[in-house]
Amino acid sequence: MKTLCRLALGWALLAAPGCKQYLDVTPENVGTIDYAFRNRNEAENYLFACYGTLQGMSNVIYDPGFTTSAEIVYPNDLSERPINDIGFQLIRGTTQNISNPVLNYWDGSNSGLNIFQAIRRCNIMLENIDKPIDLSKGEKARWIAEVKFLKGYYHYFLARMYGPVPIYKENQSITAPIEEIRVKRAPVDSVFAYAVQMMDEAMPELPVQISNSPQELGRITKLIAMSVKAEILATQASPLYNGNPDYANFKNKDGQALFSATADPAKWNRAAEACKAAIDEAATLNMKLYTFIQPANLPNINDSLRRVLTIQNAVTEKWDLNAEVIWALNGNFGYQSYCIPRLTALAVQNSTAAPSSFTVPLFTTDLFYSDNGVPIDEDKTWDYSGRFELQAGDNANRYYIKSGYTTVRNNFRREARYYANIGFDGGVWYGNGVTDPNNPLSIEAKGPTSKAGPKDRVRINMLAIWPKKLANYLTVFNEGVQQTAFRLPRFRLADLYLLYAECLNEAGGPSAEAYQYIDLVRERAGLKGVVESWAQASSQPNKPASKDGLREIIHRERRVELCFEGKAGWDLRRWKEMLTVLSAPVQGWSIFQSGNANFYTLQTLFIPEVSVRDYFWPLSDAAMANNPNLVQTLYW
Question: Which family does it belong to (predicted)?
Answer without folding.
Answer: Belongs to the SusD family.
